Structure prediction request, 879 residues.
Amino acid sequence: MRSKRFEALAERPVNKETFVSTLHEAGLIPMDSPNDPAPSLSIADGVVMEMDGLDRRDFDLLDRFISDNALDLNKAEKAMAEPSMNIARMIVDINISRKDILELTLGCTPAKLVDIVRHLNVLEMMMGLAKMRARKTPANQAHVTNRQDNPVLLAADAAEAALRGFDELETTVGVARYASLNALAILVGSQTGRGGVLTQCAVEESINLALGFKGLTNYSETLSVYGTEMAFVDGDDTPWSKAFLASAYASRGIKTRFTSGTGSEALMGHSEGKSMLYLEARCLMVSRGAGSQGVQNGAISCIALTEAFEGGVRAVLAENLIGMLLGLEVASGNDALSSHSEMRKTAKLMLQFIPGTDFITSGYSSIPRYDNMFGGGNFDATELDDWYVLQRDLQVDGGLIPVREQDVLEVREKAAKALQAVFKEMNLPSITDKEILAATTAFTSQDMPDRDRPADIKGAYWLLNKEPTVLNVIQALAKQGFEDVAHNALALQKQRALGDYLQPSAIFRDNFKVLSIHTDPNDYQGPGTGYRLEGERWKKLCNLPQVWNPKDFMDDLSASRHGSWLEEVGPAKAYLMEETREVVIALDPAFGTAINRTIGGLDLKDVLQAILDGVTDEGEKARIIRVPHTSDCAFVGAAGSNIGGSGVSVGIQSKGTTVIHCRYMPPLSNLELFSQAPNLDLETYRKIGQNAARYARKENPTPVPVKIDNTARLRLVVQTALMHLLSTSLVDYKGEVMELRIKKESYGNGKK
Amino acid sequence: MEKSDVCTLSGKAVSDLNLEDVVNGSLKSDDFRISPETLILQAETAEAAGYRELGLNLRRAAELTGIDNKFIFDIYTMLRPGRSTLKDLLSQANSLENEHRAPLNAALLRETSHIYSKRGLLRAESN
Prediction:
């Protein structure tokens, strides 16, 4: 036997996921593997002799690197002696500053760091993120890629992403040999969108370095580290080769960020039975020890693996926090596709979104998921408006600025043209005007005309391996009339000579102003401190194109007032003794005066006529009255029922909400209530008239069937409130109930 | 850091780098390269803020400013696991120290050679 509800549940997106119990022997455990060591440290003559249960002579590559290069021995003695619980409590104590926490955590071994965060629940970890992240102002990073490695589309997409406020753009390749063209395209695009946006192209390490040296990229986060020796060596690197690489990048003024994340070692089969979080703590100490200013972590491409286990999402948050406890800039994941379930994805996102991190995603897919070449697109171009709304809902800065369609089209076109100019000037395969038009309006790379790909690849080879550098690009831009873009690209190169953005957690805002731990240090210590989304920035983030002014709606309502099609006959006479079978149709104060359409868009004259027709269908008579002293549907109906001889009334609000009421019933009770005005059509109003007539004859008709659409309120609640407000403003408590009739000459004019 | 005081690897003042000179071809790539002096100042700034390791990284970077791209690629390749013999690493360290005035990078290579020999990550001498 199967429950239909369980069948429905089984079809839910969340049940497409894999959920498994832990298997610590294989490292398939997010935290607390029985094989994880307990924290310990002994130092003799300034040398670590034992760390986390291991003697120096048994140290592997990572233990050795961490103990010699990462661990701050001046802080270690005090830190290791401090109970982990105490440090955990300090992390959430608003009276203790980030600096004070770092005094301890920089002296902690990997096992100690894990032991500290173990004591925190997710809410406490989020408080940790708010306090411990390096830069005060949160930011965001975007992925800009496409399946065709189409340079024109890359340039347009990069420009749009820059305009939308992303502070870093990351591209990669479908075909590796395209790397230099992709790097060039997003460099030109980004500097067209907004000067100072940093770009990188994630490819094989030596090509990556070459692109950086040429000035085609200005940061790099390809420096992957792993938590065990075997995994590290499988990645064809060691902590020392990575440390050298970091210096190589810095020697050319290029910002770097290391990459790690829970799950990678287990995925590579080299976990040594340790928990994912413990191994990640080792990665983070290697990153710190190698002199990286920051990391990209949060399971990254392994997110689905970590999330398969109990507490996996908490472990991912814990790894972000450990990065911050080491003083590192953290680009906190949320990049690779993590779930089929929108609810699960969003809940996970909130862990970083609400407290804020240096980069809330380490790659928001600013292009449609179809074109994401990072295997990513946890959130993509189609969800940008959701992101904006979340910022507005929570008053949280998620790093993105609302844009207008026209501005986006302009900047996309300009970027495509700028790249066309650069290609022309540098003798790269030409870009046609048709391509520019396509890139300006494209959704995905499917909207782009085909290019001569072998020719592009040949051009990319030349750009990578021959003389040209970013200076040729700047030259080309200037010569072809794109001076502003040239200026931005030049300003970036000057920043590389200044090196201020090599400092931890650096981004450029407001015309190349560096925000880093020096110029924008996170000083969060509870309410009234730290980053507050307010002032101009808050106004900017609220300024969504979808937002409308309720005053305009009210003005429109008033403008639709087309003179009265109803006329007063005189004070309504009440028949209290049920001497007639008439149905009273009671109208609220705005009906046919200030308001002439229901919220569902029906003309009120048609609505009234439909009810009257319904009463007539049953051979009964109706009388129209205006209730001046209330705008409430139930009370309008109740007032009507006290007037008519039959005691049966139809009460109707100008927004269309209708009730069939009967004398002696309490006001809030009724015979039938039609509360979802947007779902009512003229046929339904006619049936309401028919039923009212039958009630007046003391019959017991079948209630009028109504369409139920629970999204109606969701869609129209604001309009409902505004229409009701208008009607209520016309209430005259001392007014007399008047009998009305439809003006003769107005018949037949009600239809649209 | 006061921007007008900063000079690039070629000795040009950063404030003198302008678009006109890029367009007329009088500025070259080296005119935009960060100088060792600037990197050392950045290292000091990082260290003063408690970033000792970043400081050391930037000091190594200062030494590498005078080393050409190809040589940097070569050293990086040497440091990858299983690429170098003990002798390779030590002689490269000596060359860095003596010929390229890069003692910090030399120390990194020596440390590497020591660890790699312990962990079996060196290329066999006979090859």
Remarks:
- Chain B touches chain A through 60 residues (CB under 8 Å).
